[in-house]
From TrEMBL:
Keywords: Hydrolase
Record GO terms (molecular function): sialate O-acetylesterase activity
Thylakoid is among the record's keywords: no
Gene Ontology BP, a term: carbohydrate metabolic process
Protein name: Sialate O-acetylesterase domain-containing protein
Pfam families: SASA (PF03629)
Sialate O-acetylesterase domain: residues covered: 88-240
Tagged with keyword Isomerase: no
Organism: Cnephaeus nilssonii
């Protein structure tokens, strides 16, 4: 990689291939840009935008060589190339670890997962070349593997501690139903190639974190780590929508909370803090109390009911050979249990889902959170045994 290898004492954390957000479109941007003097043990490297038809062995260029963070280095005043989440995430890690951290930012906004995937992983998921007009959600390169070839493959001889990924909206209308394959396949492929490229110095099951934008990102299980996605962690962001953002509602300005939630996952999965809570509560038991017209949920963690909601829980009510989704209003609750009113369904309840909407709740106003960590309960869907 020529002159862009990190010093060997750095704990490298890569912030790779996402729809990147700069620091300017975030809350308190001026303060965040000014607050760099306390983080002089952090080093940052920013990869230049580039694409290639074949896998490159070296980066064509970098926007920033390994450097100390300054307001200028974090984007030369305009913050065009350094991800805000990457920087804020790295700050949290530095505060926790108290030793040097290296951040590699390789990102291009408005790009689909196909551009960041190798041909191997796309073939494994049966992804074919697109022959139609690209959706408006894609503003950057979309051709298969071109960003993997130019902006990820040249980094393979680095030793990484982990990766964080922030992407999903660009695939809302492009191979969306394959994302539950393409994302786990990308993770597995990156892990294997980084492990081999670093001659074994990067862990074979490299910790991989991501911001949850869509259900398919969890391989349709709703939580991570799971069997298809081991050693992963995610930051649930469904309560961070920003209706008033001048950059569009899918570009929320609260990148600080995204970074905070991601760093909790990194501490637990990559750095071994086994007792740290890094994901909001999910039900571990769902019991149908048909005689009472209730569905009882028992959660694996304590829950805090921030507000009662009549529509965010929905049941699949089946009768006359068809099913329809109906609201299941929240009824009674305790520290780990919640009862839902299902009296609207006179027939069989087949499934339950939570927060199953593009905009399930307003800013930090979802109904359910973990009481101490302020982490929202993730969306889920579960089938009910009658």
């Amino acid at each position: 990689m020529g002159g862009v290898q990190p010093p060997v004492h750095l704990a490298g954390q890569a912030c790779l291939s996402w729809s990147a957000g700069s620091l300017r479109p975030i809350f308190n941007a001026t303060r965040e840009l000014a607050n760099t003097a306390a983080y002089q043990s952090v080093r940052i490297l920013s990869v230049s935008l580039n694409q290639a038809e074949q896998e490159l062995e070296d980066l064509a260029e970098v926007d920033l060589q390994w450097s100390k963070p300054t307001a200028e280095n974090l984007g030369h005043g305009s913050f065009e190339y350094m991800s805000a989440v990457c920087w804020l995430f790295g700050r949290h890690l530095s505060d926790t670890l108290q030793y040097p951290v290296g951040l590699v930012s390789s990102s291009w906004g408005g790009t689909p997962i196909e551009a960041w995937s190798s041909g191997r992983s796309l073939k494994a998921c049966g992804v074919s070349k697109e022959g139609f007009t690209l959706p408006v959600s894609i503003s950057g390169p979309s051709e298969h593997s071109v960003l993997w070839n130019a902006m990820i493959h040249p980094l393979l001889n680095m030793t990484l501690k982990g990766v964080i990924w922030y992407q999903g909206e660009a695939n809302i209308d492009l191979n969306r139903d394959l994302y539950n394959c393409t994302f786990p396949a990308l993770i597995e492929d990156w892990r294997q190639t980084f492990h081999l490229g670093s001659q074994g110095q990067t862990e074979r099951f490299l910790p991989f974190g991501f911001v949850q934008i869509r259900w398919h990102q969890t391989a349709d299980l709703g939580y991570v780590p799971n069997l298809r996605m081991p050693n992963t962690f995610m930051a649930v962001a469904m309560d961070l929508g920003d209706r008033n953002s001048p950059f569009g509602s899918i570009h929320p300005r609260d990148k600080q909370t995204v970074a905070y939630r991601l760093h909790l996952g990194a501490r637990a999965v990559a750095y071994g803090e086994k007792t740290l809570t890094f994901q909001g509560p999910l039900p571990e038991k769902i019991e149908l109390l048909a005689d009472k017209g209730l569905l009882s949920l028992t959660y694996s963690q304590q829950i805090e009911v921030q507000r009662q909601d009549d529509k965010i829980f929905e049941i699949s009510c089946c009768g006359d050979r068809q099913c329809k989704w109906l609201p299941a209003p929240m009824n009674t609750f305790s520290t780990q249990t919640l009862a839902l009113n299902i009296s609207s369904c006179p027939s069989a309840v087949a499934a339950l889902r939570y927060a199953w909407a593009s905009w399930p709740c307003e800013y930090k106003r979802c109904p359910l959170y973990h009481p101490n960590s302020t982490l929202p309960a993730p969306p889920f869907i579960a089938f009910i045994a009658n």
